[in-house]
Request: fold
Amino acid sequence: MNEILCPNCKKMFKVDEAGFADILKQVRDHQFEDELNSRLNLAEKDKQNAIKLAEANAKMALQAELAKKDKELIELKAKNDCELSDQLAKKEAQLAELKVKKDRDLAEQLAKKEAQIADLMSKVQNAELEKKLTVTEAVQKIEKERDELSSHLRHKETEQMLLEKSLVEKYTCELKTKDDIIRLKDEEIAFRKDMKLKLSTKMVGETLEQHCETEFNRLRATAFQNAYFEKDNNSRSGSKGDFIYRENDDQGNEIISIMFEMKNEGDETATKKRNDDFFRELDKDRNEKKCEYAVLVSLLEADNELYNSGIVDVSHRFEKMYVVRPQFFIPIITLLRNAAMNSMKYKAELSMIKNQNIDITNFEDNITKFKEGFAKNYELASRKFKTAIDEIDKTIDHLQKTKEALLSSENNLRLANNKADDLTVKKLIKGNPTMTAKFEELGRNI
Reply:
């Protein structure tokens, strides 16, 4: 039997060998648990070191991957910028070359057209001059014939007077009969003059209209096969012209259109009209019926040298308006028609040039749209790239916080491990006399 002092009550008590062995077993179990805890702590420390190493490796791999991606993005951006600059330079060079070529071709075509127009204008002026000369020669010829006829008439009148004088006495009875006949003729003449005075201006004008229509119909089958020449019967606007002339080509495109107004006036008409009185109404009818030209065929102002000289252009007062005498009715149609036929060619060529200019404009618009679209996509990609960089920065901040938390946990584990390393049996039984005595009895070095 062994006596053991109780560290609590300070009393001695006896413990047999079985009890002592049980106490010793308890102390050994405690040491085993301490050693086991120590080994567990070492395993946990190794585990934490492995985690730390894995985190460091992951961080280094992530940083290397980010650096690689940054390098690829920089190279891709530089490559795209270089390719875009080359493409834009090529397109701008092609566009400049195309503009220069088109400007040169257009200038050459315009120069040719101007030369052709000048040549045509020269021919028209020569034709007008020839017509004026022809009219002048015809007038001189007519005046010569008139003078000859006047001289012949005076000669005949002299002969008539001599004949009448020689036959007065012989034909007294016949003279009386002649007086009666002359009286009847004078009455007939007076009746005719009175009827002429009663004729309206419209009826006199219709006679001129019939003349012009007859002249046109004579040439319709040969010279104006595709032409429309009919009376203007549409008076919905309150007024109407006399005739409308229209002509189309084989494709149905209008070549020329003319509004005609015929004006005549009897010699005995009380109120004399002037050509100027009908210009405004004729221009109004031309615009309402959508005709290109307006022509006044007039016998008014018979003594006016201006209107007697030929075709008179009054477009300085009203656009595309002419005044002619009846003998120039067909020539004015032919002249305007030929000029319109030539202008159709120029209009077609100008339309082609205009379409080419429209194509160039569309090409420039497409380039501008491409630039705007590329800039928009580049800006969008830049924003997305910045967003990705911000997210990466946020991830790095999160990993940094995780790193700090792991480092703090490591520090706490280190402190715990130090405390475990400092733990000994001596420290455990410090202040416990009973356990100290037991260990002393066992002869253990504590």
